């Protein structure tokens, strides 16, 4: 695994967001189907027309292990981009996760798989299989541009997109932020005098 991805996996999405000055996050309507899910890795992008998911299968076949499939389903809420079978295929081929601007189905079975999926919710109806769609093109997912090869970090707080060429700089800033936050909390929280001194220093 790329050392960048290992470092990304250790980071809360909030620190990555701070490193990007609060920009580049997806719409908060795209949520993990289990609270504890986390995704961190390179984006493999998929663009599909509303209600059509053949290209998701093509993407699962083409993507590398660890890749995060980022699917622009145009926010369509009536047809499922995937269900427990398609998510199971992504898991079997060791992809890193699925981020969908759209909905899934078979939610019970999909949760049981233990594979990280982020989406806008569920529906009962399947998508069509006409074969239309594009892989590894620039897309917009949850209102945010995503290029093939950008990096994605997502958890219960939200999903952040890191432009591929900024990964090194953003990682360093986000790590520094995380260490500073941890040090500050350990020093101040639970210590009333330190808490008062902190408030006096910032107000
Ligand atoms: O077949 C589909 O399009 C969605 C589905 O139910 C599955 O993946 O299990
Ligand atoms: Mg199904």
From TrEMBL:
User: What are the binding positions for substrate in this chain?
Assistant: 83-86, 105
Q: Give the EC number(s) listed in the UniProt record.
A: 4.1.1.112, 4.1.3.17
Q: Name one GO molecular function term.
A: oxaloacetate decarboxylase activity
- Return the InterPro entries for the record: RraA/RraA-like, RraA/RraA-like_sf
Q: What class of enzyme is it?
A: lyase
Per its record, the protein catalyses: 4-hydroxy-4-methyl-2-oxoglutarate = 2 pyruvate; oxaloacetate + H(+) = pyruvate + CO2
Q: Which cofactor does it need?
A: Mg(2+); a divalent metal cation
UniProt entry keywords in alphabetical sequence: Magnesium, Metal-binding
Q: Which domain of life is it from?
A: Bacteria
Q: Which family does it belong to?
A: Belongs to the class II aldolase/RraA-like family.
Which protein are we looking at?
Answer: Putative 4-hydroxy-4-methyl-2-oxoglutarate aldolase
Q: State the organism of origin.
A: Paenibacillus cremeus
